[in-house]
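Batch manifest, entry 17 of 40.
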Amino acid sequence: MRKVYLFAFLVALGVVALLTPVVLAWSRRLQLYDQPDGERKVHNTPTPRTGGIAIAIGILVPLIGLALYGNDFSETMQRDQQRLVAFLGGFAAILALGVYDDIKGVGAWGKLGVQALVGLVLWQSDLRVDHFSLFDHPYHIGLWSLPLTILWVAGFANAMNLIDGLDGLAAGVAVFASVALFGIAQIDAVPMLQLIAAVTGGAALGFLLFNFSPALIFMGDSGSMTLGYVFAVAGLWSASRRASALALVLPLLALGLPLADTAIAFVRRALSGKSPFQSDRLHIHHRLVARGLTHRQAVSVLYGMCAVLTGGAIALRATEDVEIGAALVGVTLTVIVGLRWWLTRKR
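Output type: structure tokens
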């Protein structure tokens, strides 16, 4: 099994590494650039923004290859055929949404509409959260299951989108989250989730070769929303197999940085009377740069936070202690809020 995971990881990495220059040349030929605006965006030169296409293909190639080749994974995929079809259908829809947004542009409500539709399809395919247990006490969500599933999908997809503000940041966050997902899936003995984690980590790392500062290409919404969607489905898949509160806490902790930053941004905008979807340069990565750090230094600081969260998520799954999990989530939020407060102070 380990050889298969390593093979899938290397295939995803290799496909993205080989395909990204092709996408880069294609984007330049069609002039599909992310133009600097001098306000919200931090880059100073027009940069191609369709790298998410390479990331998506890198994730799909090893998955489809293993599905077509007779092996243990193809049998596993057949047993989970309903969920796998829903996952791939949603994957295609989110990717198409992102590509269209990168080329033509889509409003916030349009994105939410597609994400809600994808969440509905996942919910109907039993990729949902309808009950969980806490301290050996079962809780049934009932009618809240559908809106929670939709919120889960939209939250993860948009969190990865909003954190994609510095060269290499979103791709690096995806690598750390993939490590956390792989470790948790290994403890849970869920081969399909291990495979998804391996190919997602390989694709993100392959893209990082071209996206780390100074970036040659951006992943765009096609990449950030697709990566967020993959982690959202992984969390739902894990929660549907193991009805524990930890199954919900772990993905929240593994992606604690983008999720917390997104939640804080929405609250901040709402309190100031602005639309929660209005873009600004007040995210944590923007504040680090404004504080005087270079792009690479700011990204390195946030990588360090992701590494701690990754270790915490894996350790939490190994101990299965809900109280420790709650403490880790609390500490994570405290550190992020505290860091943001420090960054807003004058030098």
